Amino acid sequence: MYAFYSLLVYIFYTVFKKEDVEEVDALEEPAHVSMETGSKRRDGHAPKKKKQACARLSDSSSDSDGLSPSDEDEEDAPDIPACTPLAAFLSFKQESEKRRASQVQVDTTEKLTESPLVAVMSHLLSFLEQYSHFQQLQQQVAQYRVQLKRHRVQHRRQMKALRTSYRQRLHDKNSIICSLEEAISQPHTPSPLTPSEDVGSSESGGLVGVHSLVASLYGLQGERSRLRGELRLLHSQLEEKEQDRHSRILDFQQQIDDLKGCIEEREEELSRLRTASGATDSEKRVLCLSVENDSLKQNLSMTQGLLQQLSAIPSQSSNMLIKENESLRSRVQQLEMSLQERAEQLSCMERQSEKSEWRRGEELRKREDRVRELQLELDRERGKEPMVKTVEVESPSMLKQLSKARQKNELLSEKLSGQNEQCKHLEEQIRKSDEYSCNLQHKIAAYECEISKLREELLNEIGHLEEKKEEAVKAAASCSAEHFQSLQEQFFSLQKRLTALPPTLRSMKTDYASLRSQVRNFSDFYGAAISDAKKQITAAIHEMSEANKDLLEKYRKEVALRRKYHEQLVELKGNIRVLCRVKPVLKEDQHEEGQSVVVTTDPNNESALSVMNKGKGRTFELDKVFHPQATQEEVFQEIEPLVTSCIDGYHVCIFAYGQTGSGKTYTMEGSVENPGINQRALKHLFNEIEDRKDMWSYTVNVSSVEIYNEVLRDLLSKEGEKLDIKINPDGTGQLHVPGLRVTEVKGFQHIKKILAKARRNRITFGTQMNQHSSRSHALLCITVYGTDLAGSKTTGETTALRVACYYRLNLVDLAGSERVWKSGAEGERLKEAQNINRSLLALGDVIQALRGNQTHVPFRNSRLTYLLQDSLGKGNKTAMVVQVSALESNVGETLCSLKFAQKVCKVELGPAARKIESGAGQCD
Ligand SMILES: Nc1ncnc2c1ncn2[C@@H]1O[C@H](COP(=O)(O)OP(=O)(O)OP(=O)(O)O)[C@@H](O)[C@H]1O
């Protein structure tokens, strides 16, 4: 059984292979493109075809008989038989199978159906059926190819018919031209007829030729229109064929795809069966079948390539044919146009010749009539002559008549000779017209030559186009094959990628599902986290606000406590603090020899200093004593609490007291490199303001005045006009100086400029008034306006800053306190000294009254105390820096200043009364 099936498969395989080879050969021959195109073309088949085509073209230009032998061969190409050997084999095999099945069915039906080999064979049979279907399709393709060839042959025939008609038309035209030439040349040929008959015949011949020419032209035009109609019809037919071809190709492609699917299914089934059966013999056969299947697949792919090429080539060739037709049509149109021009020229010439012929015929006809009349008259006269002779014999009158007749005869003879001359002239004209006709003939010949040249060019062009068409077809075939190959490779690569995609897709799907669940969980988690965070934040904000409230409350308590402690400290120290600064001995102060230092400080006691005078020492105890080497910073550190208390809500006055040259200005203003109390106090003020900016808002205003001889001058104004102190009209009862320039200070750099300006103006005024600066009091008045921002915030105020309070800091550089008037000064110096001492005494009186809690405080005793009235009141703070010189020459003034300072300290009444040991001596 196995041997039988093996033999069967072998037979099938051999038949199939043989048939396949035959079919490949059959397909290759007619289409010039096949699966083995390259090899066959290398054998020289294609060049032969090309040569034959060229030869056909060359023959068609010369031969006008119709189709060439090659065309006839193409038309009679053999059709592929509908019944192939494989189909016959299949039918035979099916019948034998049926017979065998009917025989065996009786005995072992169930056994055979259960055999795997039978299943393999059934699949093989179905596969062969599919293959037969594929063969049918191939036959259809071959038929279609034959139809295409027929169409091409038909098209070539039509083209040849067109060429033939064109040649026929040229031939007709040549015949017409020949007839015209004959008609024109007829007058030249000698005729046995009389001249009058010759002329008439030539005229009738020319007219006939012209009429025939016109008729042929009309015929040509009609033929042209008919050919155009045929050409349009051919084009429409060609388009229909193209559409039909495309639809058939699509159908074929669809059927091939279906077949491919069937083959793949069969392959799968075969593989499944192979794995299921496991028999070694069946495996071998299945292996053979798979090999055959592979070869079939290759054939199928090659057939697809062939179909692709076939689908590409006709479109290319049809496009080429359309282009060729268009070019031929344009060429025909050009030729027709040139022919029409020639025909018009010919008709014009014909009209001219017709006219000239007509005129010549008319003249000839007239001459002929005249000649005929004259001949008749001559004949009549000749007929009369015998009668004249008889009359001449009979009577003299007759003789007279005879003479008249003779005369008349002579006249007629003369006329006849004239007529003969006219005839000669006419003959000359006829000769000229003959020459003109010859020229026309030459022109016609030239036109004919041109037409023949154009025809040759047309034929050459047609041949060239045919060659180009062949080349384009070849190039398109190769290009389409390469393109199909690349497409196939791409398809295979895509298929591989497609097979690799499903696992990736599955993993991506799982990832996506996990991500989706994560995202779903994340949104829940995110919402919960946000709600927790919101709760935490609100709790933290609540805690913070509570803490802030506590802190604010603590801060307020702290501020109040600090103020209380500060007040207690200041009260302990005393509301009037007296400081003493000993000026160091400078080089310029040692101009006198024998100068000795009489003032000494105790390093262990910062509150005491000793002055030696006339061998006796006296100790003064003040609030603070600065030794001569004390720096500006050390001095200010003692003043700093007072400046701070200004911010805390106190009016503060700081004085520099002492004799001229003792260092008052140095202590208050300082130098550029080493600034004094003024600059440092303002700097500290702004630092404090910066530290408190979150709680308080401050505005700092500055003014500066000079008091000289009880006259006020504005140091920030260039004019330096005199000012006066008055009660403020706002009803507060406070003092103010109308016209005094008050400048708002924005920062520490600004205060530097203001102080420099005040210093410059003080020097300028002093120079103008020829006064020394030490003879005047210089006041720097600083007003601080403070607003409690915390209070505004807590109360929800959104309007302009509320001015909570204002405080003043007065920094005063007093005039020199030396006792000039005691030395006998007079005039202006005396008045000056009196004013200075009055103001200083008034200051002492005011301080004494304040400390004594007197009901009346004599502020108005001097301009100085009057101006400082608001700052020197109860609850305010005052510091006096007493400047002393350490030199022996100034010991008197030193003692006087120290006594004044001690007097101020003495009157101090505070909770912590200080015990002040005072020595002897009192300043008057
Ligand atoms: N502590 C000091 N260290 C160094 N130099 C000083 C010191 N005190 C004062 N001087 C210098 O002494 C000179 C006189 O000082 P200053 O002008 O300040 O005295 P004054 O008391 O203001 O005089 P007047 O009353 O005439 O204005 C200046 O050149 C000053 O630089």
From TrEMBL:
A Gene Ontology BP annotation from the UniProt entry: microtubule-based movement
Recorded superkingdom: Eukaryota
Membrane topology: Peripheral membrane protein
Ranges of residues in domain Kinesin motor: 575-907
GO molecular function ontology, one term from the record: microtubule binding
SUPFAM superfamilies (UniProt xref): P-loop containing nucleoside triphosphate hydrolases
InterPro entries: Kinesin-like_fam, Kinesin_motor_dom, Kinesin_motor_dom_sf, P-loop_NTPase
Subcellular compartments: Cell junction, Adherens junction; Cytoplasm, Cytoskeleton, Microtubule organizing center, Centrosome; Cytoplasmic vesicle membrane
Function: Minus-end microtubule-dependent motor protein. Involved in apically targeted transport. Required for zonula adherens maintenance.
Protein name in the entry: Kinesin-like protein KIFC3
Species of provenance: Merluccius polli
Gene: Kifc3
